[in-house]
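This entry is passed on directly below:
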Amino acid sequence: MTTETVPAPAAEPKTQLEVKPITWVVAGVGALLCFVRFGFSGDAVVGSIFVGSLVVIAATDLERRIIPDVVLVPASIVVLLLNIALHPKFEWIIAGAAAFAFFFVVALINPKGLGMGDVKLAFLIGAGLGWNVVGALILGMLGAAVYAVALVLTRPGAGAKTAFALGPFLSGAVIVVFFLAR
């Protein structure tokens, strides 16, 4: 018996988030629309960060089937803190926590049906929309359901176990609700 230690296997290198130019353009247009809609205000700054982050999250989830924490976590913190600073209410914290908790329970019940990235995205959505989170989540899930039905009807072999990215549906619904409800 030897006392020699075996070196741990090398960790896989994390791939750097690569954002395509078209994603930057769409994020920039979203940010510009925030300033058009809200004027030069704190709400426009929060909105531009919120919408820009959602565009990058949706594009990454669509392309790589992952919601990047490197975008999601800082955006969640900044959007939450700025909303609290601009509109001092518990609404932002409660909505974010409730959306997170709801998605977390769904992920525990069906772990293959909902990823933890989607659960964390729900927190960002609540922190950015406040009480309007309910309408955005319903709209996003409805859009995903329509897509799922179309997928089953048009793709032979597709069924209940067919996976697709949920992030783009949630992000798109959130952006619509953000511009219409605020």
User: Anything to note?
Assistant: The chain has one domain: 21-181. The longest helix spans residues 42-64. The CA atoms of residues 136 and 174 lie 5 Å apart. The radius of gyration is 19 Å.
